[in-house]
Amino acid sequence: MTDQPPAQYAGPKRVLSGVQPSGDLHLGNYLGALVKFAKLQHETPTLIFVADMHAITVWQDPKKLKTQVREIAAAYLATGLDPKIATIFPQSAVPEHAELAWVLNCVARLGWLDRMTQFKDKAGKHKERESVGLYTYPVLQAADILAYKATHVPVGDDQKQHLELTRDIAQKFNNDFDAAGFFPLPEALTQGPGARVMSLRDGSAKMSKSDPSDNSRINLTDDADAIASKIRKAKTDPEPLPETMEALAERPEAKNLVAIYAALAGRPEAEVLGEFAGQGFGAFKPKLADLAVSVMGPIGGEMRRLLADPAEIDRILGDGAARAREIAAPTMAEVKRLVGYWAG
Ligand code: AQP
């Protein structure tokens, strides 16, 4: 008998993901993340957190942050996450995220972080003025995942590089501390429609909360008029829709609208083109607007209903945090022992 962990991770499958409370959620967050959470909870034990610790890597108004956390929780519930099935909690309510992040900061290498394209995109030309937290953000993300030994992480395409980094950190921790198989090497679940929803104003940029143009995105809280107007104003071209997706390769805005239609309708893109080939955007956009309103409209309504009772949302989040800690605390205790902490 040996108490050495096995070389390969042998623990249970577990899903974990989160969204930052740093602005209105949009169609990209919905299709790239929230829809997948609601589906996965029925297949695998699932933990979904509100990433308030990530959010403060850029300044957030302290008077608004708690409300923003409740809004994300309401979005989770309105898109079908069930707190009796999934564990829903605020990141900052589980101190093990920060504790593990410190250890992992000491495992990750500067050269690895220097390669992260999201930091480069967000910091732009003035990285000296950004917070250290924004730079080490992917290490906190690794801690979020590994504190629960999560094996599968549903995210949009933009997070693939961070998941690769998590795997590298997990592997190095296992090697450095002679703990083969202690942490799993988690997999990003990026497949599926809506993995990369693009801006309605620029088909080469991803739809994003921080885009200064509100017309670039459809927010979960937009009403029917706002949704229809944004789709009407979406950038397109004068050509009719072709018969194949390949023919849309050089038409990113058109391709994006077709992909959004397919994702919202739960139909293959080819089938959508089969229906609309030969038609122009004058015909396609109203159909897309009707579809978007029918899918997104009820979500906004349900969010408003849930947010009218913040105490109930707080109860759900508090209960979720207690359940999350039951998993994270033993992991952290073991990490302290492996590292050789005095307190381990
Ligand atoms: N355009 C997108 N298409 C598909 N998935 C997307 N996600 C974000 N944008 C798209 C996915 O949504 C989840 C939560 O994202 P987040 O809020 O934690 O961080 P983010 O990726 O930084 O989101 P934004 O909207 O782009 O925010 P800002 O503008 O602040 O950077 C993640 O799974 C993400 O992949």
Structural overview:
By secondary structure, the protein is mainly alpha-helical. It contains 13 helices and 5 strands. The strands form 2 sheets. A 3-stranded parallel β-sheet has the order 1-2-3. α1 links the parallel β1 and β2. α3 packs across α12, α4 runs parallel beside α13 and α9 packs antiparallel against α12. The longest helix has 30 residues. The protein starts with 14 loop residues before the first strand and ends in a 5-residue tail after the last helix. The site of adenosine-5'-tetraphosphate has 22 residues, from α1.
Concise synopsis of the structure shown:
The protein has helices at 27-40, 52-55, 62-78, 96-105, 110-114, 117-123, 132-146, 160-176, 224-233, 252-265, 269-276, 281-307, 310-339, and strands at residues 15-19, 46-50, 87-90, 152-154, 187-189.
